[in-house]
Write a structure and sequence with these properties.
Alpha-Beta Plaits; 243 residues; 2 domains; alpha+beta
């Protein structure tokens, strides 16, 4: 039996989603909670392997059981055994063959940047203390991201053989001192969103020439400026007929 779980978490205390030895991870914490009340074996597969310190509002995981169970019971028991920084928003029966990662057709990430300091938001945003980025230039670069291209040059350390990425939507918005970058695409490579944010902010604040962004979009070798993990949130994972 397969269940689809929607999960929200504050990634501050975790070394990413994926299980790793001797460090706390989101997947490892959920699996430990499942073992407290599930009798049989199970597999838990996350749609996105978020990095250390990255948050999620709409992570999706597939829970594969050998036997049958009730989705309401699973959700209630999990939330009763999980720490406050991980919350199971929904558990539903999924079709056989559903795999949270392989069945996904797209994801949406939101990156939050605050101009100046904000103790209240520091866990969930990049407190940017440099020269203010020019919003019009950020919007211009975001528009140029839309389309399909090889983004291997913006994801050093990526182990994927296929590095083509199709970006469907990308936009910057400003409210007060808060800047948010929203991006949707079919897939995202290792640290790609954070590297794009770092590059765009550096160009828009005048610390890097506009030509550097153009060269990066053409696939040329480029310098990498990775924005802090705490500003990134996996907002949603998309499946067929859901967009």
């Amino acid at each position: 039996m397969v269940f689809r779980m929607t999960i929200e978490y504050d990634g501050t205390a975790y070394y990413g989603w994926q299980v790793q030895p001797n460090v706390p991870t989101v997947q490892g914490t959920i699996e430990a909670a499942l073992r407290r009340f599930l009798k049989g074996s199970f597999r838990l597969i996350g749609a996105s392997r978020t990095d250390r310190g990255v948050h999620a509002r709409g992570q999706v995981a597939s829970l594969h059981l050998n036997g049958e169970d009730d989705p309401g019971r699973i959700r209630s028991a999990l939330n009763g055994n999980l720490p406050r920084d991980i919350y199971i928003k929904e558990v539903a029966v999924a079709p056989e063959g559903f795999d949270a990662r392989k069945s996904s057709v797209g994801k949406r990430y939101i990156y939050t940047l605050i101009i100046g300091r904000s103790p209240l938001m520091s866990r969930f945003a990049w407190e940017y203390l440099g020269r203010k980025p020019e919003l019009a230039l950020l919007e211009e670069m975001a528009a140029e991201l839309v389309g399909q291209r090889d983004m291997r040059n913006l994801s050093p350390g990526c182990e994927e053989k296929n590095t083509l990425v199709r970006i469907d939507k990308a936009k910057w918005e400003k409210v007060g001192t808060t800047l948010t970058f929203t991006v949707e695409g079919d897939r995202f490579l290792f640290r790609l969103v954070r590297n794009l944010v770092g590059l765009m902010v550096r160009v828009a604040s005048g610390r890097l020439d506009r030509e550097e962004f153009i060269r990066a979009m053409q696939g040329d070798e480029t310098r990498i400026f990775t924005a802090p993990a705490r500003g990134l949130c996996l907002d949603a994972v998309f499946y067929e007929d859901e967009r």
